[in-house]
Amino acid sequence: MVRSFYHRLINTILLLAVIVVGVIFVAQNNNLETLALKALQEDEQEDLTAETTSSGNPAAASLWADSIPGGLLVKDPEPWLPAGHTNGGTLKLLLSTDPKGFNYLIENSVDVANIAAYNLVPLVARHKKEVTKYGPALAVSMERSDDFLTYTYRIRPDVFWHQPALEDDEERDWLKNGASCKAVGERTAAALKANQPELANVDLPADRHWVQGRCRVTAHDIIFWIEMMMNTQVGGAASTRSYFQDLDMSQVKATGDFSFRVKFKSKKYKNDLVSKFVSTLPEFLYAFDEDGARFEEAVIGTRYSEHWYNPRGLGNGPYRFVKFSPGEALELEKDPWFPLGGNSFDKVLLKVVKETMQHPLMLIQSATAKSEAENQGAHITALSPQNFRQVMKKNNKNKLFHDGTIAHGFYETYGYSYIGWNGDKPLFSDKRVRQAMSHAVKADEILKNIRFNLGRRTTGPITPGLPHYDETLEPIPYDLDRAKALLKEAGWEDSNGNGILDKMINGRRTEFEFTFNIVSRPVHQDTGEVVKESLKKIGIKCNLKPLEWANFQKELHTKKFDAVMLGWGTSPDVDFDQIWHSRHADVPKSSNFVSFRNAEADKIIEAMEFEFDMAKRYELSQRFHRIIYEEQPYTFLFQSKAAYFWTPQLQNATTVGKVRPYLNPRSWYLKQN
User: Fold this and answer.
1) What is the DSSP track for 590-636?
2) 156 has which bridge partners?
3) What is the pTM of this model?
4) Is 491 a domain residue?
């Protein structure tokens, strides 16, 4: 045993030496890229079958824990897991809806984004406490040209795609034997040699990234993500694509198997941030049909959007996708090859419990379970305002919520909730009407009686407390008299005495009746009822339309709605382009689904693109805030404050993220029986 240990130790040391020397030399000469690959492949054949450590791949478990000196990435000094934590067990969580799919580029709901945090390794990672700083993750180095146009990244060579989650009756031999991984290897070798003259005579074998049944993550997977994201056939990527409009695609290239470069057409403030947004997409899977044939380039975007694998997820992060059973659960399990460590659970089980009133019971089941094997509940979850109110009532039923057995905490989120008015609809094309609607919403009452003060009023598309926010703007008060006056100014009166306002629109008398789309959740339905009753008092007929999330999204993206209630999750990085610029108003599946168009707002958005002085950015942002306040394309409601609860088995749960995902599992671990 000792002899075997020293044998593995010597191999690991030799491997680290070869890779580190390779990385340094590759930075000077890409000819050595193939040597590093050869060393990796030779040693991995032995080391990847050896006994694994708790943190993952023994061949590179601690490799590049720090970033390469001299770049823009700095290692986070704050560890997520505390000293003395224990590994193992199954983390049990809740989902309130079935995710629509797990193709992470085109599915962007909050639930799917949170799942992606388990399943994918990001290019870079925000620091735990100082969230405006970034450290290494997949990337170990980020460099920027002096003109802020060109960004060069180097990535780890020891991250692998998980094995696809195939059904029992799926053959897919071309996936299992690496045919598509090797085909991509051959294709990318040819591209590298064409783009990098120094590699013309270097041996880059097609199977260089196929290791023991798994395909390595390379810079080519990042380029493939960029190509699909920029492909206009991929409608689901429209909101992400809006950030990358200034990308010079002719200068987006893999400069090696583990390095890539992106270049922007002009110097803009957000270039730094946008370059960090890029992600990975497994070309060996998503570029191929069910029989293993590569899609034609002319239709690859369309084929990717409707890909046969879309109901499942494929990642390269700490947890691999095992199985999703709609209406039941999503199963994830720890990947022993993952080299970055820092995740304590062996498995993650996300149970689908659509009836949110059952969520407190899931916590009680977990807290009272005699063992983890018998635990059918959930270890941690945020509760809706209604559930929060119920469990805070002191009675025998809620005893565990008050005696310290089930603990709780709060966190404020970046973002805001709102009611969006479709500006392309004649009913809401006049800002006076939208202002009237805001005056007719009992926002303070909703906050107190429906959200139970879990939040605070907000007046615009910026998180309160940020210096970009104009604190002089007061929340619009509930005032039905003012609402009536504004509607009358806009030409709405009850001409026939039937109690409903009407107006001549395009030569026809039109009554003020509209449909209000809401997600089928109690807090939304209760809010909708309050809005409906208020509007009835001023002669407006509001028809509530509760929808499951998947159907809600369909009507949202096709703009088949009059009004919607939603929320935006944002970050400390303020950028208005995606949601508010006029050029996105007519783009299918864009984030400007209320079709907001305002020339002055566009000018401010464009000015902020080129402004690097923070004081001037704050001034521009506050001007923009005032325009939105005047136009009222949304009735702005609240910045949310979430209440979350956890059971005694879960440790270190008081540590939550400062940005999404707020309930970040990286800091948690289970008490072992």
Assistant:
1) -S-TT----HHHHHHHHHHHH---HHHHHHHHHHHHHHHHHH-SEEE
2) none
3) 0.86
4) yes
